[in-house]
Amino acid sequence: MEILSWLWWIVASVLSLLWTIVWFLISGWVSTLLQLLIVVAVIYVLKFGWRRAPLEMLRHGQTSGRMFWNWLRAKDGSIGGQSVEVREVIRVVRAKDFGDINLSTLMSLLMFAGLLWISTF
Q: Does this model's pTM top 0.90?
């Protein structure tokens, strides 16, 4: 009877080790995907604003999902009865008000201010 307990202990240890390795790999993938989703969401909020960003993420997500699904099924996305999408006209405003600054310049200035602040210590 003792041999059965030893065999069960060996099987349970091997299964535990395998489950630990699988969980380690899956948790890494999940956290990576969540981090990518957060970065994409921040980019959409900065680009479209916080009110319009969820709708744009949903729209682009559906398009990307459809393309991924067609890729999995090895189908061409242009074949079939897809509806023609009407695009809205975007009015381009080129006027800059006094004090407008782009994000790259702002981040560079913040970096220099941080370096200056750190160098004072």
A: no
